[in-house]
Design a protein that fits this description.
single chain, alpha/beta, eight-stranded mixed sheet, six-stranded antiparallel sheet, 15 helices, 19 strands, globular, binds adenosine-5'-diphosphate, binds aspartyl phosphate, amino-acid biosynthesis, ACT-like_dom_sf, transit peptide
């Protein structure tokens, strides 16, 4: 990231300003001008009437007469003003998002603040998630409130955990507890309200979980101010993050980009301060109520800001050394993947790698902004850099992703409808019921597909919805429903699909595993295999050993030959 310190201006020259107000900077620099944090000392200061005048940039002025000198000086001032506006617009260089694990305690908040200050040439926008497990605790507290009775709402264990964590944090960071106290009181009132109503709607659920990010960002901004770094807290739903009204899973609307850019730039021009923005939250465009972007949605907040401000880089700081070859909690010998394309990262996230939010690559890809995944516990690790393209010549497999608890449906046509009508009808049933389909394999008269469990909120609902789906499908087909399946997604270069499949099937055959369905995504980076859930972890481990721990697979790549016998050139996958 240090390399990114040099900021590229619109006019294609570069400057090395330090717009980040920081404790090391003297206050006269900071307040040199209300609109400028970065004050470039003039090499020559005067009224421009001297015949031996030099320009502010130190170049001798052409011509000697007073009028000429003054005119040239005025001209340079104008150019400066234009450049200054260009510079001001380029004030923010990157967005730095820190997840819950990165800001779990006071100690972690201190370390994150130090980390931000380690890059003195950067001028970041900070995005934070809720501290540690706060989102989970808020959700549990809400669920308990529904049935605990008003008089017991204050005693909900998770409420005490949340209060204790945030009050301890402000105490340890030596900041004013009023930063959080009114929020904690309001949270308790909200839980009493839920207890009184005996219901927790999705809208209330979103409002409830928003307390997590509202608290963490207020604490962090107060801490930065305390250590002399001027910072300003923002609730995303107040600064233009406009979403659909799909509570718990809001989709960012286009209007967000200009609105967020305007607000952050305007505030910066008026009174520069490091923005500290709540991740995960938005405002429904019709209801004007607080929405959330789906679990892990702070990544999406960060990439949205990156695109809105046209930043140089989007950084997402996690508790792992980047995107790994598989989930380290499934198999601990996973290793970092240094480079990924947006396509690979999106596919990986969509198929269940918790490390990135599934939608978060979209704004980065649209804005052409590189995303760097780093470890806040180990900042020296290079991490993963995600870009539009990368050299895929030697890439076979990049990562293995496991999605558990998947339901598979085999749907065979009763031939009441023609081939086209059959497929259309099947998918319209899923559309009507708003059920998301993950992996599909189809023949003329039968379809096998899997349903995404995370799109359905609770277990009861899953059963209810499944019954409904089967009922509808049985009007046109014979349906076989199989629960307890898992999707193993092999993310890599599908140009080498034969090699990938040969390896994968050999490994699974050796283990006596029966693959129940296979699908190759149109994205050209994903091959999905469906196996029994109970066998899935063992499969991932065996596949990992074979693909990543037994020599360089690229050496096995046989240069494909064209018809005239010449080798195919190195391939660059375009997304
Ligand atoms: N392929 C993968 N690479 C890295 N981490 C993964 C992968 N798959 C799953 N994970 C999990 O994602 C976690 C990091 O994501 P997340 O919990 O969202 O971090 P944060 O809360 O810090 O944003 C890791 O601790 C790891 O367990
Ligand atoms: N706090 C929210 C949003 C988020 O992005 O969290 P994290 O960055 O810790 O995954 C959640 O837990 O879903």
């Amino acid at each position: 990231m240090a390399a990114a310190a040099r900021v590229q201006c619109h006019n294609n020259t570069s400057f090395t300003g330090s717009p980040l107000p920081r404790r090391h900077r003297n206050s006269s620099t900071l307040h040199a001008s209300p609109n400028r944090v970065n004050f470039t000392p003039l090499k020559w200061i005067g009224d421009g009437s001297s015949s031996c005048a030099r320009t502010v940039s130190g170049r001798p002025l052409k011509g000697g007469g007073t009028t000429t000198v003054r005119a040239a000086f005025e001209e340079e001032k104008k150019t400066d003003a234009v450049n200054e506006v260009a510079e001001e617009k380029r004030r923010f260089t990157c967005v730095m998002k820190f997840g819950g694990s990165s800001v779990a305690t006071a100690e972690r908040m201190r370390e994150v603040a130090d980390l931000v200050l380690t890059f003195p040439e950067e001028s970041p926008v900070i995005v934070l998630s809720a501290m540690g497990k706060t989102t989970n605790n808020l959700l549990l507290a809400g669920e308990k409130a529904v049935s605990c009775g008003v008089s017991n709402a204050s005693e909900i264990e998770e409420l005490s955990v949340i209060k204790e964590l945030h009050l301890r944090t402000v105490k340890e960071l030596e900041i004013d507890p009023s930063v959080v106290s009114s929020f904690l009181e309001e949270l308790e009132q909200l839980l009493k309200g839920i207890a009184m109503m005996k219901e927790l709607t999705l809208r209330t659920r979103d409002y409830l979980v928003s307390f997590g990010e509202c608290l963490s960002t207020r604490i962090f901004a107060a801490y930065l101010n305390k250590i002399g770094v001027k910072a300003r807290q923002y609730d995303a739903f107040e600064i233009g993050f406009i979403t659909t009204d799909d509570f718990t899973n809001g989709d960012i609307l286009e209007a967000t980009y200009p609105a967020v850019a305007k607000r952050l730039y305007d505030d910066w021009m008026h009174d520069p301060a490091v923005p500290v923005v709540t991740g995960f939250l938005g405002k429904g465009w019709k209801t004007c109520a607080v929405t959330t972007l789906g679990r892990g949605g702070s990544d999406l907040t960060a990439t949205t800001i990156g695109k809105a401000l046209g930043l140089q880089e989007i950084q997402v700081w996690k508790d792992v050394d980047g995107v790994l070859t598989c989930d380290p909690t499934i198999y601990k010998r996973a290793t970092p993947v240094p480079y990924l394309t947006f396509d690979e990262a999106a596919e990986l996230a969509y198929f269940g790698a918790q490390v990135l939010h599934p939608q978060s690559m979209r704004p980065a890809r649209e804005g052409g902004i590189p995303v760097r995944v780093k470890n806040s516990y180990n900042p020296k690790a290079p991490g993963t850099i995600i870009t539009k393209t990368r050299d895929m010549t030697k890439t076979v497999l990049t990562s293995i992703v496991l999605k558990r608890n998947v339901t598979m449906l085999d749907i065979a046509s009763t031939r009441m409808l023609g081939q086209v009508g059959f497929l259309a009808k099947v998918f319209s049933i899923f559309e009507d019921l708003e059920i998301s389909v993950d992996v599909v394999a189809t023949s003329e008269v039968s379809i096998s597909l899997t349903l995404d469990p995370s799109k359905l909120w609770s277990r009861e609902l899953i059963q209810q919805e499944l019954d409904h789906v089967v009922e509808e499908l049985e009007k046109i087909a014979v349906v076989n429903l199989a629960k307890g399946r898992a999707i193993i997604s092999l993310i890599g270069n599908v140009q080498h699909s034969s090699l990938i499949l040969e390896r994968a099937f050999h490994v699974l055959w050796t283990k006596g595993i029966n693959v129940q369905m296979i699908s190759q995504g149109a994205s050209k980076v994903n091959i999905s295999l469906i196996v029994n859930d109970a066998e899935a972890e063992g499969c991932v481990e065996a596949l990992h050993k074979s693909f990543f721990e037994s020599g360089d697979l690229s050496e096995l790549l046989i240069q494909p030959r064209l018809g005239n016998g010449s080798p195919v050139r190195a391939m660059q996958v375009e997304n």
